[in-house]
Design goal:
Length: 104
Amino acid sequence: MTGKAKPKKHTAKELAAKLDAATTNRGGGKAGLSDRSGHDKGGHAKLECPLCKVTAPDIKSMQIHHDARHPKIPFDESKLNNLHASTVADTSKPKPGIRGSLKK
């Protein structure tokens, strides 16, 4: 006799979610290092701090970083390095879906 409310088999939705989580690059580890750094194809990091070379995805995150790490230097938006401006994204590749997978 089995326990209460315990399914005996995995559902198709659960198996698909496990497959998606296992095969989609979420940006972690060595595979996501180039994506996080922003040097190849722009990546997630859009802005780079001119003082310490830390990257951030948007201006608000960069301002939070600057206020925390460089409080004595005034924040100047024009001095930030825009990593997406120097690289052009390849438009021939298909774009990922909602959660980053290429589902059909």
